[in-house]
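Objective 1b of the project was to move from sequence-level analysis to a structural picture of ligand recognition. The entry below was assembled by the postdoctoral researcher (A.K.) and checked by the PI before modelling. It contains the amino acid sequence of the target and the SMILES of the bound compound, ISJ.
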Amino acid sequence: MSVLPLSKAVSSLSDRLSQLFDHSQTAGILQLVEEVSLPPLMSWLAAQQQFPKIYWQGRDRYEEVAGVGSCLDLQFAEAVDDEKLLQFYQQQRSLPRTADVRFYGGVAFDRRLESWPEFGRARFLVPRIELRRCEDKGLLIVNLNLSAQPLSEQISSAQEALAALQAAQPLPPPIKTDVQTRVDIPDFARWSELVTEVTSPNFNRDTPKVVLSRQTKLQVAQTPDPWTVLACWQGRNPTSFQFGFQFSPERSFISCTPERLYRRQLNELVTEALAGTTVRGLTEEEDEQLAQQLLDDHKNSHENQFVGTHIESELRPLSAQVFADEPLKIFKLNHIQHLHRVIKARLRTEVSDFQLLQALHPTPAVGGFPKASALQYIASHEGYTRGWYAGACGFLSSQLSEFAVAIRSALLEPGCINLYAGAGILTGSDPVLEWQELENKLATIMSILVDF
Ligand SMILES: C=C(O[C@@H]1C=C(C(=O)O)C=C[C@H]1O)C(=O)O
Ligand SMILES: [Mg+2]
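Corresponding predicted holo structure:
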């Protein structure tokens, strides 16, 4: 079969929809797929005028997805307890659908707290239209939600969405933003107080690690296009995950994060401890030296160990086997490098993604240890709403699910760019050095946005 260009595949799918009168499936998600030769997905997404828009590229780069519109959109704006989330999850899981139907979305860092407008505490959607690149294969996918409306109505909505698609346009070169003011919450004085408190023996005894973070609010004359920014970020850190959610034209959340929460293929799980940080060297020799110092450093190894030990203990009751004997390695990014240890597990057959999210997120890489007291401290001391920063974002499907930890991320709003960075605070943390670590974590996105 020859592979169609996108415009031809769109007409072919539209024809197939017109012929789809009596389908045997009457509930759940019906998916129509055409193999297609894809345009660059970020350029295509930037040109679309339908919302929501979503983008996902896995760290291993064997798949990339852009989606517009939705045929199912589950929002949890108000308080949502895990019982409700579980109910929703089981309801969706029992709907008839093929293995390839995916729910894209995320959960906030702390879903007991108020989150951002539109994003809410958790939100998952099935896009109306998806373009997916799996290795070298391109797919155009249309999803119909037969549980929401009769088939005929879903067909017309899908045809409208197909007709409204725009051709991909080359992305403009990145525009440096004119930053009018910068505000950090907490500021350095408050940060120092918090680091001092968290490292004091009295506090430290019960809560040995808290990941404190900062919101950097940049007031800008014009908010840049999120997809242009994300495409640039992707160029600087191609071995990270890249994803974005734009539920309405006003607000978008983009991330270029190195950190995997987990990838599950049937019952095989891969996760990791990514924590402990230093900068990159200017020469290969200096870079290696810095990496070796990071591996040998007590505070940084300890920082990573909290994460690994916690993940292992959470996984043990859910798994037939946990493999946690991989060596500690270095994960290199454009401006910084991290300590990294891969952890694998063979899950017990009945374990669901919901249980995995509940058990693994937030790990001590972004929350702290023990989880409950660290989260409590963060909620009452940081002074701003984390929302989806350090949340879990990705997709769920029956055979394959993947979530990244939404760090190295930005929330773009009218006239304002919010950047986020955190650092693990434990015995041996110094307020000045940890503040510098926050700056190092922002260096790449800052260099994209701002002229120095
Ligand atoms: C919390 C963040 O990063 C986390 C903290 C790290 C550290 O303190 O060394 C390293 C990687 C992440 O686990 C962030 O980038 O915002
Ligand atoms: Mg650190």
